[in-house]
């Protein structure tokens, strides 16, 4: 197998794996599939972690994950698909960041891995085994990469920033204990 064939096969595998996981994760939010909680349950969770309104946040995250994942798997509109999925994962990483990096502690490792892989695919392109290639790259032009990432970065910064403000405001007025409990005994 020549080098470009191996690269195309490798990109196909990355797209199918990453896109499939993202799409499945998104359908948990949108439809309650695969043990998910659907829009209602996910919306309540989103509210509880500072994304408001919860239902709209659940819908946006579910669409970015499901749509971005499905498009990545197909290799269609790859810059927009990868950027949308990366943005959704940045929002998820923000929720998990206080728990550290590793997933076993509830950290952002999983979200970061999916987001970085989606971003990498958006930049690299889908390869020749894709709908983008079959359609002559009509929705996969070089100029679309920075545009997709700029739009996603702006939207993600607004949403994650608003969440951070809400969490700060909710904490205002709370006072940390002056002494740790172990010292009081």
Automatic annotation (TrEMBL):
Subcellular location: Cell membrane
Membrane topology: Multi-pass membrane protein
Signal sequence bounds: 1-23
TM regions (residue ranges): 70-95, 107-123, 143-162
Superkingdom of origin organism: Bacteria
InterPro entries assigned: DoxX, DoxX-like_oxidoreductase
Key words of the record: Cell membrane, Membrane, Signal, Transmembrane, Transmembrane helix
Keyword Cell membrane among record annotations: yes
Primary location recorded for the protein, binned into one broad class: membrane
Family recorded in the similarity comment: Belongs to the DoxX family.
Protein name: DoxX family protein
Lineage: Bacteria, Bacillati, Actinomycetota, Actinomycetes, Kitasatosporales
């Amino acid at each position: 197998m020549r080098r470009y064939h191996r690269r195309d096969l490798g990109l196909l595998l990355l797209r199918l794996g990453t896109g499939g996981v993202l799409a499945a994760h998104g359908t948990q939010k949108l439809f309650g599939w695969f043990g998910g909680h659907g829009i209602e349950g996910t919306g309540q969770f989103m509210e509880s972690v500072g994304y408001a309104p919860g239902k709209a946040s659940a819908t946006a995250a579910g669409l970015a994950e499901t749509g971005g994942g499905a498009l990545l798997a197909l290799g269609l509109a790859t810059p927009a698909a990868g950027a949308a999925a990366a943005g959704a994962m940045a929002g998820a990483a923000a929720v998990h960041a206080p728990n550290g990096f590793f997933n076993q502690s509830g950290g952002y490792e999983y979200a970061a891995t999916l987001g970085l892989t989606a971003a990498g695919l958006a930049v690299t392109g889908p390869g020749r085994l894709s709908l983008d290639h079959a359609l002559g790259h009509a929705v996969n032009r070089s100029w679309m990469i920075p545009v997709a990432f700029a739009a996603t970065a702006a939207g993600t910064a607004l949403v994650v920033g608003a969440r951070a403000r809400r969490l700060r405001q909710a904490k205002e007025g709370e006072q940390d204990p002056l002494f740790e409990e172990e010292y009081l005994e």
